[in-house]
Write a structure and sequence with these properties.
The structure is a homodimer of 206-residue chains. Chain A is α+β, with helices and mostly antiparallel strands and 206 residues long. Chain A contains eight helices and four strands, in the order βαβαββαααααα. Chain A folds into two domains: 77 residues, Glutaredoxin; 117 residues, Glutathione S-transferase Yfyf (Class Pi), Chain A, domain 2 (Up-down Bundle). The longest helix of chain A is centred in the middle third of the chain and has 29 residues.
């Protein structure tokens, strides 16, 4: 299988961590997308993902899977090893919820701030900016950091006592926050300690 | 188990359809949330869901599950019957992707238009509106309707040949579109035929 992505970008990072957690990085051929020159908006890429986002997984039968949660669902079901999406109804539901919160409260909020209220990827790519909306999303992201600090005060991982996709999403959100120059306040000690612990995992530090 | 919701609202509808598909409506005690009077923003409700959204599932052990995808994951795993999230890696991934597209391209876009660029739920609840962003989301929703018409030209259901959570999300998106007075253009014949077929399902028509 192939993954079309941009190394070191936050969403591609999510899928690469998921693969590494499953020891499956070598099962995939990575194909670089020249996103900074707009390749993701050309017809050939839009045929793979009409929403123009990376990463996209291409299965050996030619099926294209976009969206990080969908690609991670594929990886989690197809490969043995640690469970990323959870086992059993309650665990799967809690992980799904916390993953979604990590997206909406941090990663997606930071992304919208970056693309709408900063120079983002530059004027060629950042068309139709809405700075007011972007700034509101920055406020939302900062509130999200406080929320997850509280969660991590009482829990080893984002969705309970086991590592999951929810940790991957929040970690990528903090990477993006750093890139967008949103600083984690030093008083959010639980969040910062968790981030340090995540950075040391083999799937991330390697 | 209990579900805190508002009957006939689009997101609560998603979970009620999922329960009906599993013949599990009678397993749940529904608790009405007085959203129009702001009950969802009071401390007691925020303790159930800090994002103040409905529906919220409360398990018998006191765990609260918010987010429609998470609640549906619980329902799908806990109850027998038709699979809503898919079986096998590829099917689960395609359904996850198409569900997410139905959210981002239609349901969430319509919701943002409704809450930001129309009177929405009224001035008491619609604080910090951004009409420019809302209008852009209406354009996005209209493009989403065209996308799903094309999908349904080649496929019986949103994520392939089987009914899934992706159909539920898109159906709720069209319900919300109607409420927000976004009309489905008559030339989108595949989408309209699918909507008519969905409306006749026992889980929806009952």
């Amino acid at each position: 299988m192939k993954i079309y992505d941009v190394e070191n970008f936050p969403n591609p990072l999510r899928v690469r961590i998921a693969l590494a957690e499953k020891n499956a990085i070598d099962k995939v051929e990575f194909v670089a997308v020249d996103l900074l020159n707009g390749e993701h908006r050309e017809e050939a890429f839009l045929a793979k993902n009409p929403l123009a986002g990376v990463p996209v997984l291409e299965l050996d039968d030619g099926t294209f899977i976009a969206e990080c949660t969908a690609i991670t669902e594929y990886i989690d079901t197809a490969f043995d090893g640690i469970s990323l999406m959870g086992v059993g109804a309650k665990s799967r539901a809690v992980i799904n919820m916390m993953q979604k919160r990590a997206e909406s409260m941090v990663l997606d909020a930071v992304a919208t701030y970056f693309h709408h209220a900063t120079a983002g990827l530059g004027p060629e790519l950042e068309t139709n900016q809405n700075a007011t909306w972007g700034q509101a999303q920055k406020d939302k992201a900062n509130a999200g950091l406080i929320y997850f600090n509280e969660v991590l005060a009482g829990s080893e991982f984002v969705a309970g006592n086991e590592f999951s996709i929810a940790d991957i999403t929040l970690f990528a959100g903090l990477v993006f926050a750093g890139f967008a120059q949103i600083t984690i306040p030093s008083q959010l000690t639980h969040l910062l300690a968790w981030q340090e612990k995540m950075a040391k995992r083999d799937s991330i530090s390697a």
